[in-house]
Design a protein that fits this description.
- It comes from Hymenobacter caeli.
- By secondary structure, this protein is α/β, with parallel strands linked by helices.
- 47% of the residues lie in helices and 15% in strands.
Amino acid sequence: MSNNLLAGKVGIISGALDERSIAWKVALKAHEQGARFVLTNAPLAMRLGEINGLAEQCGATIIPADATSMEDLEKLFSGAQEQLGGKLDFVLHSIGMSNNIRKGKAYGDLNYEWFQKTIDVSAMSLHKMLAVAEKQDAFNEWGSVVALSYIAAQRAFLDYTDMTQAKAMLESIARSYGQRLGKLKKVRVNTLSQSPTKTSAGTGISGFDAFYDFADKMSPLGNAPAEACADFCIALFSDLTRYVTMQNLMHDGGFSTTGISQEMADLMVKANS
């Protein structure tokens, strides 16, 4: 149901690969709530995904961009403003990639060139996007930037390897640029730390299904689904959250503040009996 929370607002949504993507669901929700936006993804990801169908459904323009390329990002932000007829009110950063994870590299045996690429794609891209937006004065006052993160930025998790450092850097950039853009244009910048989610990226991590089930049993509310994450993003884009900035917001059903659940304790007792 639409409450027109984003009526009249315009923005950029990155990272929509297929209907399982959180960014895909954010786009649908933003459209439902009255927003207009440009969709963007890397050219390779666009060839692998189904973004054209989403664009048609939402009446959105697609502007391909490699988020590590300043030239591409300059074209993205200038093109988005041209297509949308003015400055931007929101940006979703939903970008992450690790060849070390894809290739099953152990943390002690990382390919460092791939590691640098992980950082560039998954974290530094946020800084580059915001730097371009700042130079172009691309944001309206009280705009909102949301970048998708994960609790591995604060805790050690098996098999998340170099993405752990990327997410930590992503959250640090959001704080630093949140301070800067807040003073310059009253633009807020936040990260959203989501439950394990069965997206194309998530399920590519070794042992994902086991950890998904563990997190679901640990969380009082269970794992937060992608649709609920999209709702939270819409709230952060809206005027209802004007004074929320520089935060890493946990959207995980209570996982991050639960020591142990009764369900997990019962399973451990059963396993040891």
